[in-house]
Write a structure and sequence with these properties.
Elements lengths: L14 H15 L8 H27 L6 H18 L6 H19 L6 E2 L2 E2 L1
Antiparallel strand pairs: 1-2
Helix pairs in contact: 1-2, 1-4, 2-3, 2-4, 3-4
Amino acid sequence: MGPTRTTPEPVRLTAAMRHDLTRAVGRALAPSAVLPRAEDVEELTVRLRGYAMCLVPEVEDRVGGMEQGATEWREATSALDDARRALGAGPGAGLRSAVGHMQELGRVCHRLRCHLPLGRVNGSES
């Protein structure tokens, strides 16, 4: 028996959403010598949170079809655990902690995305 679903049914990502997700993850994880503006951090955090909430149920669906205990299953369930932890956390007090939270959401989205088929768009393989 696979892990219990903790989220609503998946909202499948479109090709445009996948492209935007890739750009958002890149922005969140781009190295910078200075902290970004608070407004930019907030906007990107909201976007990444939304994507993580879409990705979690998709990965949960995939995990349900995996062999329990296999390497892929362990990596996917670890990514799900990290995503749930990040989604349950807040940005904290101050810009530095908000940037850290945004970056964590970027890493979470990247890890979750790695557990989906590359061509998956709206629930079908392309």
